[in-house]
Every structure is written in C-alpha cells, then in structure tokens.
What we know:
Keywords: Membrane, Transmembrane, Transmembrane helix. The protein has helices spanning 22-39, 47-71, 85-90, 94-111, 117-124, 165-173, 175-182, 217-225, 244-251, 253-268, 279-292, 303-307, 322-330, 334-337, 341-350, 353-361, 374-378, 415-424, 428-437, 446-451, 530-538, 583-593, 608-614, and strands at 133-136, 144-146, 160-162, 197-199, 208-210, 213-214, 233-235, 272-277, 308-314, 397-401, 413-414, 474-481, 485-493, 503-505, 515-516, 519-522, 552-559.
Amino acid sequence: MFRRRTGKNKVPPSDKISGDTKHEEERLRAEFEDAKVKQLIIKPRSKRRNGFIFMLGGIFGIFIALFFANQHEVISLDLFMDLNLDSWIESIPQGIVSEVKEFSQRERDTVSYDSFAVGLHLRSQGVEAKHPIVMIPGVISTGLESWGTGENSRQYFRRRLWGSWSMMRALVMDKAEWKNHVMLDRDTGLDPPGIKLRAAQGFDATDFFITGYWIWNKILENLATIGYDPTNAFTAAYDWRLSYLNLEVRDRYFTRLKSYIETAVETQGEKITLASHSMGSQVVLFFFKWVESEAHGKGGKDWVNKHIASWVNISGCMLGAVKGLTAVLSGEMRDTAQLNAFAVYGLEKFLSKEERAEIFRAMPGISSMLPKGGEAVWGNSTWAPDDQPGQPLTFGNVLYFQNTNSSLTQRNLTTSDSLQYLLDHSEEWYRNQVLNSYSHGVAHTKREVEANEKDPRTWLNPLEARLPLAPDMKIYCFYGVGKATERSYFYQEEPDPLVNLTISMDTTITNNEGVDHGVLMGEGDGTVNLLSTGYMCAKGWRMKRYNPAGTKIKVFEMPHEPDRFSPRGGPNTGDHVDILGRASLNDLLLRVAGGKGDLIEETFFSKIREYADRVQIFDEE
Length: 621
C-alpha cells in the first residue's frame, strides 16, 4: 500500500499504491482533516525570533527608503551596487550575526527536505530509468534571455530579463527599458523591432526561477538517482509570452520538439514520457493536434501512439483560470488585492495596475489561460457546479458590481459575459490577438469536434478538440486540492480618471459572505481552480467525442498539507507550483517514467466528480 509522506514521518512508499476504496478513502480523508486542524495550532514566537524579525523589518525599511529616495533622485542606487557586504557584517554585533546564521541554517534544512530521497528509495526497489522523459514547464517558469545587439540591448546581452536577479535589477534601475524588452509587438505578437528575447535552454532554464527558489530542481534530483541524465531527459523550454502558433512561427518550437522525441525513441528504443506543468499541459495538448495535422506537423494520426507512452499532467490548467481573466482585465488578482495599504501604495508607485495589465496583454501566451467552457462549466448568474449548499453568492458570477449606477457596471457578469466585456473594452490589437489565437467554447457533438481538427484556435481547448488517436498512451493527472483559490471578484468603475482602465477591483468589500478584499474564494490549488485541473480528467476525457480512442486516464489528487515551518509548504504541499517538490508527486512521476505507472490507482479527495456531474456538458451516447 502506498503511504503518503509527512514532514515528521517519512515512510517510503511501497510498490502498491492505495486505491479508491471506500475504507481507504475515509481513512485518508480523516488524516487530511486532522492535518488541517493541526495546522491551526501555532506556537508562540520566542523573544529571540521576535528580535530577529524586528531587525529584518528594520533592514527592509532601509531598503524601501533607499528605493523611494532613488525614485526621487535623492540617492542613486548605483552607489550601492559595489558595496562590500563583508564590511557591513563586521560592524554588526556578533550575537545578531550568529542568530542570523542559525536562522538561515534552520531554513536551509527545512527547504532541503528529501533531496534525492524519493529517487534513492525507488532505486532500492528496482525502479530505474526506462522511458526517455521530456518536461514541458508552465507559464513564467522558463527564464528569458536577451540576444539583441541593438544599442539599448547590449547591456543585457545573454542576461536573463525574466527569471534571475538581473531581471530584478533591470526592473528597479531601468523599468521602461525592461518593459520594452519583455513586451511583444502589439500587432504581430512577435519580437518588437531591435529587441530579441529567447527562452533559456537546458535544465538550467527551469530548475530555479531565481537563486534559491526552485521549480523543477527537486524532480531533476530524483530523476537523476534512477538513471536519468541529459542523454535520456530533456527540458523543452519555450517562450511562454508567445501565442502557440507563434511558438512555431518564430522559434520552430513544435518542429524541434517533434524531432527530439523521434530521435529519443529511435536511440533509446522506448517511447517517451511527457511531463507537463500548468500552462505546459495546454502546450502538450496543442502539440498533439499540431503533430497530427497534415497542414502542420504532418506526423499522421498514429504519431502520438507510436512515440508517447504516457503523459503526466501536473496541475494542468486545462480549462484556464479565473485569475487569468482579471490579470489582463485590470492587472489585478488576489495577490494584489489583499496587500496592506502601504504595500499597495508601493506597488502602484513602482508598477501600477495599468502597467501590469498592459504588460500581460502584450504577452499573448498569458491569454491562453482565460477560462474555457463558458457558463456550461463555470456557471450562470444564479448557479455554478461548485457552489456549496447555502452559499450566499454564487460562483457563476465571476465579476460582481456593488454599484450598478454606472453604464460600465450595470449588472454582474458570468464567465462568458466577462470575456466579452474584456474584448469590448480592450484595444483592437489585443482583441485581434485573442480572437485569432484562441477559442473558449464547447463542442457539444462529435461533428463539431471533428470540424475543429482544422482550426488551430481550438487545439488547446479540450472541450473543442479531441485527444489524439492513441489507445496505448496513458494519461496521469496529478494535482493539488484543498487550498483556497480565487473564484469570483467584486469590481467597480475605476475611480481614478488618470488611469486608463474602465473598471478595477473593489478591495474595500470584506464581509461574512466569504468576500475578503473583493475576492471570493473557492476550491483549487491556490492558483488554478479545481474545475480546471480536475474536470477533464475526472469526466470530460471519459466522453467518447473527446477521447475517441479510449486513452486510459488516471487521477491522483494530493491534499494540501503544508509544513508551517517551511516557506514552500514542505513535502506534502498541494500548492500549484510547490507541488513540484512534493514527495509523493516525485514518487509517482518516477514510477511512470520507470514503467511502473500501472500500479497507480485513482485517488480522490475533493468533490470533483460531484461537480463534474453538474457541469452542463453531456455525452452523446
């Protein structure tokens, strides 16, 4: 039986993984609820730790003061770039220095949990590298390097303007030029004249976002312990700013991915395991359609079945995310809405919501995560599939307006209404980018699905495009559950006439109906809603028209059980990004890559099957 790891009791899993039996599920649910209660018990801080945090606050305050002084040209931050930190440390009392070192060591010990341990245990059980593995990262995970040689780009040559401390420095020291580099051309959706950013390549492209903040690194560590290296493992990094068709137009991304997979299968003698995360799962779905198409990849209808053994879909936002809507609508989301007043003031002075919306819109890849499925999936003005009994405000309205006197805010908006509102009140160039690249509807019949085979706009929408004809391929859906995730928002007419936005989030609303600073929370992994990560896996792909070849689907949900001593949640987190370091996720992925995926049995903790039955999409047969 498979035992889930906990922070204190690291019991290695056995070869047999627990199934979805009633008794086992009840036991695991009880453990899950007990763990959530334990998380609420917080020990009082020691005086030493309070003193240390006070000191950190003081240092942070100094840097904030320096930043604002620099903004008003009182002090130039350039003067501080070459300071010798050793001289600073010598002037700090040794008691504080030793406490900082002790605190840092404890944090490093917490963060470095289970390095290599999962892989080492599986290797001792005889699990070893079998299928070559290709990893497709999620949105913003891949570093972006400057390769431009124009006058304004030379200073950044081969430096990462996304995903490094170079990005942070460029953003602080020269925000306007940084924006010019990261934003794509509004009309073409490609490189602006004289600017050239490209996705970093290799494992280094996605192992860490910035130094110390891992993304795929723990998976790489464990893969290496069972025999993976650059000869049989590959990170297919991509420029996530581009629309999917433009990934091929500019970078020949899908052509190169197809070539690598074919070469790996030929040289290794085994079919591929694809592992994708978040937006990367949409990229995989698009690739499947592209490679089959006679007008594009020319691989034929059986290419996927011949080359792909399994697809591990990790936290895939298959139906988008509601926070993707508000990001491009007003540059806001829960992360910005629930900041305190001082932080909001600093953020708006540094990078305003208008600027954030402008940047997000000029990255067409971000808009691939707008919600898909309309009211059939996300609900209408009176009801939603994931509404709870007695819930005062339905999730069916994605945007609520408390003040309906304005012509801009006359009524609440469902998902479909919100998308239309976004397009109606956006610049023409953005509207064209979205309409020419994506589709957000539902194909209710087999005939509609087949008609979409020739429409690339539908290829990343699993409700409009079928899975490849690959009866031998296995799909594994691994995602986190049990972490509050933004589901609806309160908006208002933008009160500042100088801001070029029609509406913005109303963060003044907090009430006993579940609204916190204008945000109504639902279920998910903290970033992507449960309906998006779970619906297609739990039901959608069980319908004949979306899965005509009968590809087998297995779901393994992972409850969010964070370690309160770990800033990243520890080995049992279900967070959207941090799940990549989760012990059981690494265990399952290695088993699939090692050819032991058949031992995995479906495990559910959430109510996704109940919600899926309420979704207004039905099988024809």
